[in-house]
Specification:
The chain is an alpha/beta fold. The strands form 2 sheets. A 6-stranded mixed sheet has the order 6-7-8-3-9-10, sandwiched between helices. It is globular. The protein folds into 2 domains: 124 residues, P-loop containing nucleotide triphosphate hydrolases (Rossmann fold, 3-Layer(aba) Sandwich); 67 residues, no CATH class. The chain starts with a strand and ends with a helix. The mean pLDDT is 95. Bound molecules: adenosine-5'-diphosphate and magnesium ion. The site of magnesium ion has 5 residues, from α1.
Length: 243
C-alpha cells in the first residue's frame, strides 16, 4: 500500500488527538503504529479506515484522496476490514453467523452466498470446527481469529487492526499474531497498532512512532528499534523493552 498523510488534525473537545500528523509510505505491506497510550494511534487508524472524519489535513491511500461524501466514505469503509481490541463479535450469534450476517446486511450478499463465504473464511484459518459456537464458548484468541476471519472474508484492500492482542494472554496472543503474519505473507496489506514490540519488529515493513498526536518517527523496524532518533521514542522503547 501507499500512503500520503499531510497535516492531519482531529480534536475531541480540547483534546488534540491528532495534532498535525504527516507521514509518507511509498510501499509497505504492513505498517505498524506504536507509541504511548493516548498518543493518537486509534484515531489515526479510524481516520485512515474512513471511520472518522478529520478536522483538517489530507489523506491519500493508494493514490486516491479519502472520500468526503457520506456515500463514498461508506463504500471506502466497506472496501476495508477492521478488528479492534475486544468485543468484536456479537455475543448472541455463532461464529459462522457473526461472519455471514454482515455479508448479508452490509455487503448485500444473499444468505446462501454469505454462508459459503463465511465457511470459506473460517476454513482458511482452521476455525471451521468452531462455526456453530457462540463467542462465549470460544477462547479470547479464537474469538479474535474469528474476528479477523470476518474482517478478511471479502478480501479487504487494507486490514486495520487496533491492538488486536492487548486483551489476550501470551499463548492466545501468539496464535493471533501468527495468523496476522500469515495474512501478511499471503499479500494482505495491514495497518495495525500494537504494544507487541517483538511482533512489530518481525512483521512490519514500516513502523510509525506516534506520541501526542504526532508522528515522531517513521522508519523500517530495523532502523527504528536500533536507532530511535527522537528522545521521546528512545524513552518509550527503553521503558517497554526493559523486561
Ligand atoms: N471519541 C473520543 N472522544 C473524546 N476523546 C477521545 C475520543 N477518541 C480519542 N480521544 C482522545 O484522543 C487522544 C488520542 O486517543 P487515541 O487515538 O485513542 O490514542 P491511542 O490509541 O494511541 O491510545 C486521547 O487523549 C483520547 O482520550
Ligand atoms: Mg488505541
Amino acid at each position: 500500500m501507499k500512503l500520503e498523510v499531510d497535516s492531519l488534525a482531529r480534536c475531541f473537545g480540547t483534546t488534540r488527538a491528532l495534532d498535525g500528523i504527516s507521514l509518507s509510505v511509498e510501499s509497505a505491506r504492513v505498517l505498524t503504529l506504536i507509541g504511548p497510550s493516548g498518543g493518537g494511534k486509534s484515531t489515526l487508524l479510524r481516520v485512515l479506515g474512513g471511520l472518522e472524519t478529520p478536522d483538517s489535513g489530507t489523506v491519500m491511500v493508494n493514490g486516491a484522496a479519502l472520500a468526503t461524501t457520506a456515500a463514498e466514505l461508506q463504500a471506502y469503509r466497506r472496501s476495508n476490514g477492521f478488528l479492534f481490541q475486544q468485543f468484536n463479535l456479537f455475543p448472541h450469534l455463532t461464529a459462522l453467523r457473526n461472519i455471514s450476517l454482515p455479508l448479508e446486511v452490509v455487503h448485500g450478499h444473499d444468505p446462501a452466498t454469505a454462508q459459503t463465504l463465511a465457511e470459506a473464511a473460517l476454513s482458511r484459518f482452521g476455525l471451521l470446527e468452531h462455526a456453530h459456537k457462540l463467542p462465549a464458548q470460544l477462547s479470547g484468541g479464537q474469538q479474535q481469529r474469528v474476528g479477523i476471519a470476518r474482517a478478511v472474508a471479502r478480501k479487504p484492500a487494507i486490514l486495520f487492526l487496533d491492538e488486536p492482542t492487548s486483551a489476550l494472554d501470551p499463548e492466545m496472543t501468539a496464535e493471533v499474531l501468527e495468523l496476522i503474519q500469515e495474512l501478511a505473507e499471503q499479500g494482505q496489506d495491514i495497518i495495525l497498532s500494537t504494544h507487541e514490540m517483538g511482533f512489530a519488529r518481525a512483521v512490519a515493513d514500516q513502523v510509525a512512532f506516534i506520541a501526542a498526536g504526532r508522528v515522531e518517527e517513521l522508519a523500517s523496524p530495523a532502523d527504528l528499534f536500533a536507532h530511535p532518533r527522537s528522545e521521546v521514542c528512545r524513552r518509550f522503547l527503553s521503558k517497554v523493552m526493559r523486561y
